[in-house]
Amino acid sequence: MTAVFIVSGGTGFSGEQLLRTALAQFPDSGAEIAIIAGIRRPEQVDAAVARAAAAGGLIVHTLVDSELRLALDRLARHRGVLAVDLMGPLLAQLQIVLGADPVGRPGQYREQNREILERTEAIDYTLAHDDGRHPEGWRQADIVLVGVSRVGKTPISLYLASLGRKVANVPLVGGEMPPELFQLSRRRVVGLTIGPEQLLAHRRWRERRLKVSLSGSYSNPLKLREELEAARRVFLQGGFAVVDITDKPVEVSAKEILEAVGR
Fold first, then answer.
1. pTM for this one?
2. In angstroms, how far is CA 124 from the centroid of its own chain?
3. Mean pLDDT: which of 80-84, 213-217, 225-229 is highest?
4. Are 131 and 171 in contact (CB under 8 A)?
5. pLDDT (tens digit, 9 = 90+) per residue, 166-209?
6. Which residues touch 83 (CB under 8 Å, ≥6 apart)?
7. CA dist 70 to 15, 154, 186, Å?
8. Which domains does the chain have, with CATH numbers?
9. What is the dihedral of CA 177, 181, 182, 183, to 10 degrees?
10. What 3-state DSSP class applies to 111?
11. What is the spatial distance between Cα 204 and Cα 202, in angstroms, rounded to a whole number?
């Protein structure tokens, strides 16, 4: 398997996007991508080239600092590592056309577009951590929403993500709290609750939409109340803030969640 190392003075995001676009033309390549970000010093360049040499890999770099770029190319040639410069030739041509010198500071694009990029990252994170997926990544969340099925976790999560918050949402099944929740700061975890009649309406609507009858307890009013009570005990056990979303639009629920986390 070929290893491709993206070396960047910033996050490596632009280099990764371009590399993945190119690799899409080689669907069976099985190339393994590794990002070496935040390269600002010569010794970091040396370590990156050594890592690629040890793996017999290829370097793709987007360094905007001309000295670091030249140092990487020199070290790569010395160690027999193929290095592809994605930034240098473009900067050189722009310098000629625009009649100005590049500032050579990494992270400029991200700084100028911080709000948009943070919102995009938040949405990507939230989609990847919907419905209890990837618990190993919950520590990276700004907010973790917990609640029973159909309480409204996903739409509220996506709305919060559109505001730039990374949100994971976790379903409570059988009144059991996933052990990973105990490892999180309780200040970032919010329990969602809802009136039993409204929850019953949501679940019955889902059954009609799917044109199937789910498990007997799913839309059983008595079992449903038991689920909500079990969830309440979990919230109490974890010391989590609780937001009741009954008859509230998503925007209002999200505002209360942000206030709860802020407290």
1. 0.61
2. 5
3. 80-84
4. yes
5. 999 999 987 778 888 888 999 999 999 999 999 888 888 877 77
6. 49, 58, 59, 60, 61, 72, 73, 76, 77
7. 18, 48, 48
8. 3-112 (3.40.50.2300), 115-262 (3.40.50.300)
9. 160
10. helix
11. 6
